[in-house]
Amino acid sequence: QRLKVRNWIAVTAALSFGVLTTALFHSTEGFAEPGVTFCLLLTVLGLLIWRDGTTRAAWLVGIGLAGSVLFRTDSVVTILPLLAIVPFVISRKTLTSTLRAWLPALLVPMFIVGAWTGWYNNLRYGSPLKAGDPGQGFTNPILWGLDQLVVSPGKGLFWYAPIVILGAVGLKASWRRERFLTLFVAALFVGRIIFYARWNSPEGGVGWGPRFMLPIYALGLIPAALWLEEKLDRPPSRRNLALAFAGLLVALGLVVNLVSVWVPYEQYVNDIRFAKPGETQAQVDVRLNQYVHDIPASHIVANWRRLD
Q1: Quick one: average pLDDT of 133-161?
Q2: What Rg, from alpha-carbon coordinates, does the chain have?
């Protein structure tokens, strides 16, 4: 309703996220990314309602931003800076006149989460300001990480959710209808990929596809929905072409992601990441490199081969 798209398109976008992306795999695991994604969507909803004149919706924004930090501390870098978009969504006059209403809505949830996180870090690591396990850090060349997250068939984000290609295609339509939201999606996409490209494990370790990209999948389907809404008002030939393209991506997404729950995701990785009798570590490294960069050795193909 807030984005003024047909109800069936909104429902289809939600179902597409749940079935045609790595969200399906995440439904079988306990990783933090679904929590971050939920909080991010809560933030976007709060901004849309706040923009329409309901200042109380700032609480949704505050809870969403704080909650993302609670699930993953690195959201301080990957999500909190997106707060800078608020002045582009809410007029300066409105922000000034309702300061006493929205400022606590943003600060109180963040204070609570900050206090809890500091207490937990002190308990686990011995310092309120220390977070993360030893040995983790930004140790990868950025171009190598970008190649792995965007291009490689083993972990590239579009390989594991072809439907999100519609999100990229739909940015132009999204810009015409929802400029702030388009900027929000683009900023998240660029910032998150660059941040994790330097991480020692850009793909998120053992898992199905690029684990840290789940929030991008969720937000990326919003421009896709706006694109489809626009295409439905075009002449029949262009409309049918758009629906056929979307249908193809849906089919590919089903092929890719259903196999993630038919075959345990860790089965193939455990087969290749440990040295077999008589093997050297160099041989294992070659196998892992093929797993990331070669289609025949990718996780998707390997899981299909293991359906029996």
Answers
A1: 89
A2: 21
Whether 301 contacts 293, CB under 8 Å? no
Query: Is 150's pLDDT higher than 90?
Result: yes
E runs forming strands in the chain: none
Tokens of 8: 């069936």
287-302 CB burial, b ≥16 within 10 A, e <16: beeebbbeeebbbbbb
- Total-model pTM: 0.92
Residue 5, Cβ neighbours under 10 Å: how many? 19
Phi, psi of 91 (to 5 degrees): -65, 150
pLDDT of residue 203: 87
Q: How far is 23 from 300, CA to CA, in rounded Å? A: 15
Residue 302 neighbours by CB under 8 Å, 6+ apart: 268, 291
Burial class of residue 236 in the structure, from the number of CB atoms within 10 Å of its CB (0-12 exposed, 13-18 middle, 19+ buried): exposed
Give the contacts of 271 (CB within 8 A, at least 6 positions apart).
none
pLDDT in tens, 265-305: 889 988 898 988 888 999 999 999 999 999 999 999 999 99
Structure confidence at residue 241 (pLDDT): 93
d(CA 307, CA 294) in angstroms, rounded, equals: 20
**150: Cβ contacts below 8 Å, ≥ 6 apart:** 156, 157, 158, 193
